[in-house]
Amino acid sequence: MTTEPTSVLSLENISKTFRDGASVIGDVSLTVKRGEVVSIVGPSGCGKSTLLRIAARLEPQTTGTCTVDTHGIGYVFQDPTLLPWRSVRANVALLAELQHLESSVLQTRVDEAIALVGLEEHQHKYPRQLSGGMRMRVSLARSLVLRPHLFLFDEPFSALDEINRQRLNDELLRLFEHQQFGVLFVTHSVTEAVYLSSKIHVMSARPGAISRTINIPFGYPREPDLRFDPSFGMLALEVSHALRDTES
Amino acid sequence: MTKKTMRMGRVISPIVTFGFVLSIWYFISYVVMNANRRSVALPPPHDVLSQGFFTWAHNRGIQPIFRAMLVTGRVAIIGLLIATILGLLIAIVMNFAKPLEWSLYPYAVIVQTLPILALVPIIKIWFGANLTSRTVACVLVAIFPIITNALFGLQSTDRSLHELFSLHKASKFTRLRKLEFPSALPAIFTGLRIAAGGSVIGAIVGDFFFRQGAIGIGRLIDNYQKEGRTTELFAAAIVSSLFGVAIFIGFGFLSKVAIRQWHDSATQVPL
Known about the structure:
The complex is a heterodimer. In chain A, about 35% of the residues lie in helices and about 25% in strands. By secondary structure, chain A is of the alpha/beta class. In chain A, the strands form two sheets. Chain A has a six-stranded mixed beta sheet with strand order 5-6-7-3-8-9, sandwiched between helices. A three-stranded antiparallel beta sheet of chain A has the order 2-1-4, with helices on one face. Chain A has helices at about 50-55, 90-100, 105-115, 130-145, 160-180, 190-195, 230-245, and strands spanning about 5-15, 25-35, 35-40, 65-70, 75, 150-155, 180-185, 200-205, 210-215. Chain B contains eleven helices and two strands. Chain B has a two-stranded antiparallel ribbon with strand order 1-2. The longest helix of chain B has about 40 residues, at about 170-210. Chain B is globular, with a radius of gyration of 23 Å. At the A-B interface, helix 2 of A face helix 8 and helix 9 of B.
């Protein structure tokens, strides 16, 4: 048995072939446990986003099994995907509404989630009035309301500038340390992956497969200055090399 | 150009155009036409004002024009209301499943391309030559832009938003209520504004052909033309176009109120 009691996501021998016969994912197995951040880095077209979509059941896999914790999934898209006609507060409440949460519970959880991402003062604004970083926070808070045991991130901060990206990385870690969900994080950024993760899977393309797994030995909580630690640099280098190897 | 001169330009330019049109009007009235022709074909603006607008009598001047406009306006608004409800329902049904769209859309197009004049006799046979028929004519003219714009709006909902709703297993109805309909609102309002203009035209055409019941502005214009009451004919035509403008502005305002907080187009609606 590969499924341990604490694992919130378990992908076993997943493969995916599109209808036109193109094989995007060869054979991928991975697990995510609570209290663990697992990142996937890889060249574009390696099927990392597809893998995430399979985990979220947005797409069926061709073969293999996908087991997900029943507490629901927090899925954070590349774009904040907010409803422009809803205020921040109403956007944060959306998923809870879709899940038919009782309204008194919903209101307390919305308050809590808005406070967690620090948007109390902006809760009556509309998405178009917010900066990119703030929109992403709303998107995060929207999922936090559901208190999922598993978060899936599909390159969530790639549209942000470096400063905002680092800030959101820090906030994500803080939330993670506080709530101890499991995270599967797809990213292009090596430093982001090293900074956040307890484990990094490097994927190669055509068809997508995990070519290397690198464990990150740093514990949590992590301080922002970790980014300038020599051992951090060495790990980033190792991941970069592993990435380069996938292309040769 | 500074902002201030631009704002002044926006106010002054149409006034200049207005003055220009007025002077051409005077020129044709007094220079091109002789006195007989003038009173029948193009009475000068001040005669239209004094005889058409500033004459207060039961059967002359502005009173009958107002009464007729009220009749036509009511038909137009009721027709628009029916067209809106029906049109939205049809768009929602079409959006529900592709086969429904495929089976209904061609007929919606046919309704649009059928010249309303060709339908007049049939409407007359089915509904009589009364106010009901005028309303039916209105609905037929107004419904198509509502269907197409609403359908376009419903179908152009952002794909990743749809995925978000799929992720949480939202039902079709929830999807419609919380996602597709609000996201279609800007397009629906565009359709409404087009339809509003159409329904005024439909009501006036209806007045012409379905002559039973209260006299509408279309019939009044027709009567004035036959009786050679040109100044009042001009006044009636001006009032009916002002009504169209009022409806257009009204819907512009409505859409501004409904979507200004979140949609960019609302800040660019003319007037």
